[in-house]
Amino acid sequence: MNYKKEQIKNALTLHTINTNNYKTNLYAIFLATPLKRENVTLDALLTAVLRRGTKDLPTQEQMSKKLEMMYGANFDCGVEKTGDNHIMKFYLETLNEEFLPKPEKLLEESINILLSVVLNPYTENGAFKPEYVESEKKNLKLIIESKIDNKTKYSHERCIEEMFKNKPYGLYKYGYIEDLEKITPEELYKYYQNLIQTCKIDIFCSGIIENSTIKEIISKNPKVQELQERKPEYVINNETTEKRERKEPNQVEESMKVTQGKLVLGLDINDTQENSRFVSSVYNAILGGGANSKLFQNVREKQSLAYTASSGYNRVKNAIFIRCGIEIQNYQKALDTIKEQLKEMENGNFTEEDIQNSKELILASIEGITEEQDTEITYYYGQELADRFVSIEEYANKIKNVSKEPIINLAKTISINTIYFLKD
Amino acid sequence: MKIIESSKIKEKAYVEELENGLKIIIIPKKNTKKKYIIWGTHFGSIDNRFIMPKTNEEVFIPDGVAHFLEHKMFEQPNGTNSLDTLMALGIDANAYTTNDHTAYLFECTNHFEEGLNELMDYVQHPYFTDENVEKEKGIIGKEINMYDDDPSWKLYMNAMNCMYKENPIKIDIAGTIESISKITPDVLYKCYNTFYHPSNMTMVVCGDFTPENLVEEIKKRLLSKENQGEIKRIYPPQEEEINKKTEISQMQVSMPIFMLGFKDTENNTKEKAKKHIAIEILLNIIIGKSSELYAKFYKEGLLLNEPSFDYEFSKEYAHILISGTSKDPKKIEQGLLETIKQMKEQGLNEENFERARRKVYGNYVVEYNSVGDIARMFLADTIKGVQTFDYIEQFETVTKEYTEEILKSVFKEENEVLSIVEPIKNN
Q1: pLDDT at residue B133 is higher than 80
Q2: Using CB atoms, which residue from A65, A142, A304 is nearest to B139?
Q3: Distance of CA B207 to CAs B4, B36, B371, Å?
Q4: Left if phi > 0, otherwise alpha if psi is -120 to 50, otherwise beta: which for A297?
Q5: What pLDDT is recorded for position B270?
């Protein structure tokens, strides 16, 4: 296997992926911490402030200039929710040294720049630079406000919020304006100092790389050496940890100026058996995975009720989300048709061919994992956080082995939790 | 078979032109599991008036036909849909229409041969009836409504309206509800027979292939067609001047979005790739992430993110687009124009030029990470008459002096326009 994992110290793990499929090397650092209402806004703001400068490259201008001289190395960062964890992600992508017009060294510098962003930020008088914090607060405020701009994403986000009301996963990853206003540079820095000594840290390197070289570069970085040994604080989520009670569906409607309605259904999978995720994946693909799926065929093609109709499986929360863009007056008809499809699944009204088609779809995406550097990294990080390691080959085999009976049994445990509708 | 090569990035492309005129480009990629094929015809939304080579008949078609035709190609006489057939094989299939071409594609890891069978079968067998054309109008109508809700689409169309009075780039790719209502099977067949002739098409394949064998496989599946002469496309004459300076619309957005355009009236150069490289270097120097201007805008809270920029060109149009989100787009416009003026007077700074150059080079190389990006790039460039490896191989020929010349000839203040979509004002 081209994937290796080793502990550099407690709470700091190095993952390497050796591959010559790309012209680039990709490096990533992920910080994981439990999602909490009082912290989400701090996490989001912190990620943005860290990117503003390091001790060696204190301004954004210097940072950008440095990266551009390295043949346009790409730095990226962001926050994501993975299960009940808030993940702060930092990436650096550089050309592999083989494809430069002239020989030059890029590897060591790249890793050290990325480590500096996370572990050696620019500070003034024991706090983040007030100017950086202020401008990032403004930016974050705008990001939070612009949540409404993309109606498809917005409606999905709203459905999740309703479905996980007052639970960690229902929190908005960018946080809340009322919390944002109060944050000071000192408070944010204090939060950072505590976070960096408690969170789980994972470093990924993918490309044409030498494991031992990378390990050495990271181990001898002074800021890495300063990290305390500890048991990291984070939440393990997987299909066996997510149990929810069946209940009457919660119906939520919202109005906005739109010509097309957005209908999103959140479904609970009330099956917490080990490995049920493979069955759930196949179930989801038959229901709404592609152009052959029940939703696409019945909601879009046969009845022309929608322009888009699909479903997605969220493994860490053991949930499925159905998403349709419909004409507003078709709401009831579309909802009825979706419910019919769920019934069809329970009654086993799908063929061996449907199962086969769905598996092909999933297998193609599994094969695709090793074709994109960040997808491969995300796959292994998912395994790490779920604390269930399955190699890519094994994953494909488990999907191949899913049969009809377990799909029907799973279907019987599925219930609608939330029906969200965005209309005019 | 002709072989073109880029030694810097260690890639080769095999180019074969068949007797019937079909151009096949194969870029072999060892070790990758993904395979990508794209079959394009030089027929896009701007081709709305032409003379059919066989009959010499002049045809004027409603807006949105190229896109409509793309939608209808998947439907088979036996009631099946080729998209479903491909998806059932685990093949990710799709199609798209742009201003200047229509493309049918799929990406797969397995079942490439079966996929090729289906792709070459459905693209060569149109099936249009009154009934299936009528039904499609409902589906496309919904797609058009979706575009109407999309502020960034409105922004783009307004920018085109500012730059051009009468240019087919202003046509909505999907057409309008009204224009597509006029589409009939007869119109579709006329367009199909004219533009889906091998001599007007290019096929690009990228993945782990032996080029010679693959060309044979493709030939086996091609239907023989009578040779056809050149298609005469009729476009309005080029306009030297812009249509208007500014257009502002109001929609549901939280902050204004803007698109600044520079119409390029001198786009008949032979050195297309070279010019394109110079423009990208310039855009990076002017408003790229490490530019002084971006730092200033960011500091003043006028820009939150680096604006995106692009140079779109074909024989019929060419323009630079700079777009982003800002609370005060007019200030962005003013700052940009001042900076450009200064650069023209003082020349480019050596260090800034070198940095932008390296960045742009890196961007081009990164494209070669994905079989899909490679194939789409080769197709789009072929339609435009550009050789894709030129972007890498001619890179060193783009000097500071050449770039300064391009700055003067393309970034003209009188050719600059501004499109804004701002939040709806209450009351």
Answers
A1: yes
A2: A304
A3: 16, 6, 6
A4: alpha
A5: 82
Which amino acid belongs to residue A57?
Answer: L
| Mean pLDDT of the B271-292 span | 94
Q: Which two tokens stand for residue B36?
A: 């990508």
A-chain residues near B32 (CB < 8 A)? 21, 371
> DSSP secondary-structure letter at B132?
H
Q: Which amino acid, one-letter code, is at A47?
A: T
Q: What is the ipTM score, two decimals?
A: 0.78
Q: Can you tell me which residue has the tokens 């789009």?
A: B380
Q: Domains plus CATH for chain B?
A: 2-233 (3.30.830.10), 246-423 (3.30.830.10)
Q: Are strands B246-251 and B416-423 parallel, antiparallel or unpaired?
A: parallel
Give residue B59's region: left, alpha or beta (phi > 0; psi -120 to 50): beta
Q: In angstroms, what separates the C-alpha of B66 from chain A's closest C-alpha? A: 19
Which of B36, B251, B290, B363 best probes binding to A when mutated, by most A CB atoms within 10 angstroms?
B290
Helix (H) or strand (E) holding B324: strand B318-325
Q: Which residue of B has its CA nearest to A327?
A: B142
- Tokens in use for A76? 């990226």
For each of the domains in chain A, give its residue range(s) and CATH number, in order of start. Answer: 3-226 (3.30.830.10), 250-423 (3.30.830.10)
Tokens matching residue A296? 């696409």
The alpha-helical segments, DSSP class H, found in B303-398 are 329-346, 350-366, 371-384, 390-393
Whether the CB-CB separation of B325 and B255 falls below 8 Å is answered with yes
How many angstroms separate the CA atoms of B162 and B317, rounded?
13
Amino acid making up residue A43: D
Band of the pLDDT at B427, cuts 50, 70, 90? low
Find the helix or strand (DSSP H, E) in which A249 lies.
none
Neighbours of A120 (CB within 10 A): 18
Q: Which residues of A touch B253 (CB under 8 A)?
A: 146, 149
Quick one: tokens of B339?
Answer: 């900076």
